[in-house]
Amino acid sequence: MLKIKSARVIVTSPGRNFVTLKIETTDGITGIGDATLNGRELAVASYLTEHVCPTLIGRDAQAIEDTWQYLYRGAYWRRGPVTMTAIAGVDTALWDIKAKQAGLPLYQLLGGAARDGVLVYGHANGETIDEAIEAAKRFRSEGYLAIRLQCGVPGLKGIYGVWGKQRHYGSAKAGVPVENTWSTTKYLPVVPKLFAAAREALGWDVHLLHDAHHRLTPIEAARLGKDLEPFRPFWIEDMTPSENQESFRLIRHHTTTKLAVGEVLNSIWDAQHLITEQLIDYIRMSVVHAGGITHLRRVAALADLYQVRTGCHGAADLSPVCMGAALHFDLSVPNFGIQEYMRHTEETDAVFPHAYKYADGMLHPGEVPGHGVEIDEALAAKFPYRQASLPVNRLEDGTLYNW
Ligand code: EZ4
Ligand code: CO
User: Fold this and answer.
1) Rounded distance, CA 328 to CA 366, Å?
2) Which of 21-30, 105-114, 160-169, 230-239 has the lowest mean pLDDT?
3) Do residues 351 and 14 make contact, with C-beta atoms less than 8 angstroms apart?
4) How many angstroms does the Cα of residue 263 sit away from the middle of ligand 2?
5) How far is the CA of 306 from the centre of ligand 2 (A)?
6) Whose CA is nearest to atom 10 of ligand 1?
7) Using one digit for the tens of pLDDT, what is the confidence trace for 79-131?
8) Could you give the CA distance from residue 177 to residue 161 in angstroms, rounded to a whole number?
9) Taking ligand 2, which is a single-atom ion, which protein residues have CB atoms under 5 Å away?
10) What domains, with CATH codes, occur in the chain?
11) 20-25 contacts: CB < 8 A, separation 24 or more?
């Protein structure tokens, strides 16, 4: 039996905070898993260090399903982002170990490659529509086949997803939360103009996406969906929050624009009605926030029955370890749709050397045994944790709203 000898948490901040769980077996195989929860990093680190790591020592490193059940059922308190992110850290590290032990890239253990590569979308944005289109053209020149478009809204400062000319994006800022202002009335007319300009400039041979970041009511979402129908978006993401999964039925009744949701969901139960009632087209849950490879496979298997495809969250606050693991999942899962790809900073890539590579609009996880991502601990130690928070949003009259 391959036993777990040690399990420890590494927190590093090469531009932004990342939490990594490293597990070592008695015969010296190591595996790592991402356990980063943006803005709440140390809650997961503590959950792992205080409550999970001690229970892992001496356990069978190969019994991934049993360990998953042990951590999920064994906590008594089920679900929730902190718990499920911690479980994901363990699960991803154990899959990494199992694949290394087999001498195979992880996707081979998940059934082998079901496609040649993983279609990704990049993030084009700008303060103005013209700037966003210029950014989208740069992505096209780099071979991207799918591009997310976000632009500023006249009269509003600090719009989600707009970071101007910087190549890298960090939504969390040092200290207490920054406050942004939101107006749906100002936002709604802008997006159809952005999409019209994009089709004019980029043509129809490219997938265009957009993220409404939970800011619309269902009927507002329905209106946006209708307005965007002529431009055939690949999807509109997070039109409205999904705690009430029924909300999506109302949007569905009004528009054929494809709907994606799920980056803040942690459990298959959070998506049960969205999937089984065919209220969405893409489920965006990630390896790191939804209980690891083990649980995400279960979500995908359910989704496949209802023709819902995957579209894993892949923002830069999910570490390269999550990206590596996600790519093995994406390559092997039958109902893969698309993978979000926000490039990490050079510092982050140096701390997490990885086998995955981008070419011609696709990522491939590589052929290295395991998930193909390692951590340079000496370098990681040079970037100590810095407290940072996600912004909050207020309506123009000061009412606290969804960010
Ligand atoms: O705001 O990951 O689609 N991507 C997103 C992200 C989220 C951040 C929050 O931590 O919506 O940019
Ligand atoms: Co999003």
Assistant:
1) 9
2) 160-169
3) yes
4) 6
5) 22
6) 38
7) 999 999 999 999 999 999 999 999 999 999 999 999 999 999 999 999 999 99
8) 16
9) 211, 263
10) 4-105 (3.30.390.10), 109-368 (3.20.20.120)
11) 20/89, 20/319, 20/321, 20/375, 20/380, 21/48, 21/89, 21/90, 21/92, 21/93, 22/93, 22/375, 23/56, 23/61, 23/90, 23/93, 23/94, 23/97, 25/61, 25/97
Residue 267 has what DSSP assignment?
S
Ligand 1 touching residue 41 (CB < 6 A): no
Residue type, 195: F
Specify whether 213 is catalytic.
yes
**Ligand 1 lined by 388 (C-beta under 6 Å):** no
Tens-place pLDDT, residues 131-181: 999 999 999 999 999 999 999 999 998 889 998 766 677 789 999 999 999
| CA atoms of 172 and 178, how far apart (whole Å) | 9
Beta bridge partners of 7: 23
Catalytic residue (one of 213, 214, 289, 295):
213
Quote the mean pLDDT of the chain.
97
Q: Which tens digits make up the pLDDT trace of 270-303?
A: 999 999 999 999 999 999 999 999 999 999 999 9
Q: Hey, whose CA ends up nearest to atom 1 of ligand 1?
A: 171
Residue 91 CB less than 6 A away from ligand 1? no
Tokens 């140096």 -> residue: 350
Q: Specify the ligand 1 atom closest to the Cα of 284.
A: 3
Please identify, by atom number, the ligand 1 atom nearest to the C-alpha of residue 213. 11
Ligand 2 centroid, distance to 50 Cα (angstroms): 31
Are 32 and 96 in contact by the 8 Å Cβ rule? The answer is yes
Which member of 144, 160, 282, 356 is catalytic? Answer: 160
Q: Are 372 and 356 in contact (CB under 8 A)?
A: yes
Is 168 catalytic? The answer is: no
Distance CA 51, CA 336 (A): 34
- 22 within 8 A of 7, measured Cβ to Cβ: yes
What's the pLDDT at 216? 98
Dist. CA 266 → ligand 2 center (Å): 14
Distances (CA, A) of 67 to 156, 223, 224, 227, 253: 48, 45, 44, 47, 42
Counting ligands in written order, the one closest to the CA of 237 is: 2
